[in-house]
Design goal:
Blueprint: H1 11-16, H2 20-32, H3 37-44, H4 48-60, E1 64-66, E2 77-79, H5 94-117, H6 124-127, H7 141-155
Antiparallel strand pairs: 1-2
Helix pairs in contact: 2-3, 2-4, 2-5, 3-4
């Protein structure tokens, strides 16, 4: 799939993405490719009927679409985007953006907790490279922008939906980053 990263600033889209199951289903389709509501349900731990509903909501906002690979009995869906930004959200809609970000953080925490619950069953070569790291950085807003852009440039070639050269032993990997100022920290605060 060709890269398609729209800027999502519409309040209705932000509201649709403020649900962790919708974010999880969208992420699953982006990393696993076309899937039916039943396949999505198994992957994200929900019911097929609920996933079908969430797929229709995502489709109504142009984030997913029916995949033509269906055989008439199955109805697979695929993502129509490979990611998104939220750069141009109207200040009046910041509450919607905050709800979407909160749902995204909730989903990330859920995925990490589930991984840690079963980490003892993960093959040793994957346990050796999994990571949770925190860094206390001293950055200006311009420097943080540069760091985020550089990290994005490193990660972008590995995005599942657009990658065509993944090695045979590649697995779906969740990578999430958070960067925000810690106000009240430091001697000058």
């Amino acid at each position: 799939m060709q890269e398609n990263r729209p800027n999502l600033a519409d309040p209705g889209v932000l509201d649709a993405l403020s649900h962790p199951v919708r974010l999880d289903v969208l992420g699953y389709l982006a990393s696993a490719g076309p899937a039916t509501a039943s396949q999505c349900a198994r992957a994200v731990g929900d019911t097929p009927s609920n996933c079908s509903y969430h797929l229709r909501v995502l489709a109504s906002h142009g984030l997913v679409e029916p995949d033509p690979s269906g055989d008439g009995r199955s109805r697979p869906w695929r993502t129509s985007i490979t990611g998104f930004t939220t750069d141009d959200v109207d200040p009046a809609d910041l509450a919607g953006l905050d709800r979407m970000l909160a749902a995204s953080v909730e989903l990330d925490h859920h995925l990490l907790r589930e991984y840690l619950r079963g980490r003892d069953t993960v093959p040793p070569e994957w346990r050796a490279v999994d990571l949770h790291a925190s860094y206390g950085l001293a950055l200006s807003p311009a420097e943080l922008t540069e760091v985020v852009e550089r990290l994005d440039a490193v990660v972008r070639p590995y995005i599942q939906a657009t990658r065509t050269d993944a090695p045979a032993d590649a697995a779906h990997v969740n990578l999430s980053l958070s960067a925000f100022p810690r106000f009240g920290f430091g001697p000058d605060r």
